[in-house]
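Q: Two folds, back to back.
A: First:
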Amino acid sequence: MTIFDENLILETINMIKLHNFDIRTVTLSISLRDCLSEDVNIVCDKIQRKLDKYAGNLVKYANEIENDYSIPIVNKRIAVTPISLVGEACKHKDYVKIAKTLDKCAENLGIDFIGGFSALVEKGCTQGDLGLIESIPEALATTSRLCSSVNVATSKAGINMDAVNKMSRIIKEAAELTADKDGLGAAKLVCFCNSVSDNPFMAGAYCGYGEPECALNIGVSGPGVVRAAILDLHKDADMGVLANKIKQTAYKITGTGELIGRRLADKLDIPFGVIDLSLAPTPAIGDSVAQIFQAMGLEHAGAHGTTAALAMLNDAVKKGGIMASSYVGGLSGAFIPVSEDAGMIEAASKGYLTFDKLEAMTCVCSVGLDMIAIPGDTPVSTLAGMIADEMAIGMINKKTTATRIIPAPGKGVGDKVVYGGLLGEAPVMPVNRLSSEGFVMRGGHIPAPIHSLNN
């Protein structure tokens, strides 16, 4: 006779019903390396057939798994080979046509987002990379599900400042072309240092060169579960006890996520890839990383001690996760997107959380300056300086960092951008008005640090 642990069953139910635990995303990683052709129309036809072949049942089977286990699967997504590579063989490099094909495929398949409109240019750009980058603003303005990313730095290669300068202009154009939607184009565009090829989260997901033909990557999320676990502790529990509680909670979350991922991969008859442990918040009350800081004892996100709290949270989540699974990958840790986290929105609106504090926090979090709205008249050179600073943090610390900054067209400090859904809303935050132009316009390469020479 099977013996059920009543307490464990009740705990799992509470995680889902009371504390917003969910599978944030199931992301099907699909290689498009066999879709190359000199004719862009043939490329688009091959892409459509490939996505239909592997993703045709993704939404159907994900919904079945969701019903079987009563665990919400919030987003169904696809990540493809960086499109700069796929379109480079075309005589006429019409990347916007490919973008629209990807977006239409996602719509037909019922997919929420499709990532991989990407280029990897940390050491320089090919003609294909340049073509894709220049097409990003129009591609994001004329699609609804497409997401784009560009890797401009690594710890091994240094920072490509020519690419940083180009991307600062592209971000501004993407925002301006979607001015009627508060600059939504920039909200679907991210610049990376040390991007990872198995990340299931948008906007940075793509299928890396070393990835298999197809695999299923899972992103779990449970900020509310972690917060509730911390609140269960005595308020005087020391840091070691606090860290252990977070690890134990991450262990439970990871095991549940891998179970769901493997079941779905089996139904799709494809390999299971990785489980990404990133605590990805939402605008929903109680599903906030910032509120975890308050449960730890800080008055609000932004107080002195916030960076230390985030460092401990990030580390404990990873330690708990790797004890539960041998397939932890992606980014894994804690995200701090301003617009997507109710507590971060409140902290930014009240002035508790500044741009500089957010930058400091990125030294210890999973990604970086994420979903931050800034005045629309911010100079392109200032944007380049912001990107360069964040890339430097990732390069020196050998970690993934990123910027997803939105220069909100026609808006200034005190205004608000509103996107709805998981993208949420955010106050327009003040930025340093000192000029960066003389520095960033030097261009060229910021060399990799000495510790990159470790072969």
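A: Second:
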Amino acid sequence: MDTVIQQIGEALNPIFGTFDPVLIGRLILVLVLCGAIGFERSGHERASGFRPHILVGLGACLMTMAGAYAFPEDSIERDPMRVASYVVSGIGFLGAGAILRHGTMVRGLTTAATIWGSSGIGIACGVGLGWLAVIVTLLVLFTLMILDDFEERLRRDESTNEIKIHLKDSNRAVGKALTALERLGISIKNATVQMGAGNSAVLRVELGQPILADHVPLLVKQLLVVKSIQMVDTSNLQMSLEDVIPIQSDDKHASGEHKQLVDDNLLKDLNEPDEKNGNGNGHPKSG
């Protein structure tokens, strides 16, 4: 019986290779490390979160071990890291797929970087640098979690000039909100999107210059005309009290910016797509 088992093992050895628990342990380590990074990202980028990071790490580890251990050491022109070098360059295509653009804003750069880092962790585990991979994973999580909070505090401590626009549908409302601000003559310095529950999102818009205090209520009123905008937060908005001119409905006393802010029909056309998707009676669908 033992002879039969030995013969079967020898016959399968060219197909499956030698059962090496060390290599299997490296794959499990990759699963844990890349899974930790992916779990953190899953709260920010749902499409490129938990499982994609694990798959990238396992694939990189497998390809690295195949290049390093699949051929005898005395083989001619043996380069154990050749396959790993192609992993590093090829993973850029997957990372690019995680980067999304919403008008003037770019999202997904951090997730693309963590995908690229996960491939590096897989390569390190594949060649037996497990402790180095563990340390890098801890540093990556420190950067994503601790330094993210630290950066957020620095932004709050600095003199910010931004408004937060709460949106119902991030897929359609981001462009409408930016278009509305442009029509109202608001100078935009930077804009970022933070995803919320379901399709909701918060659009954070940093303004290029302070806005007159008397214009803030008019700005909020105009933005709320767009039905995909739920709320406008102006708590971090810089307001100027200089050269405040009372808002006049008479065109002779109103500047161009004032005209835009008091024009009740300026943004109504942004609701047309929503009305077309309604119930056919000229009214949008009720929730």
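Q: And?
A: The CA atoms of residues 43 and 49 lie 8 Å apart.
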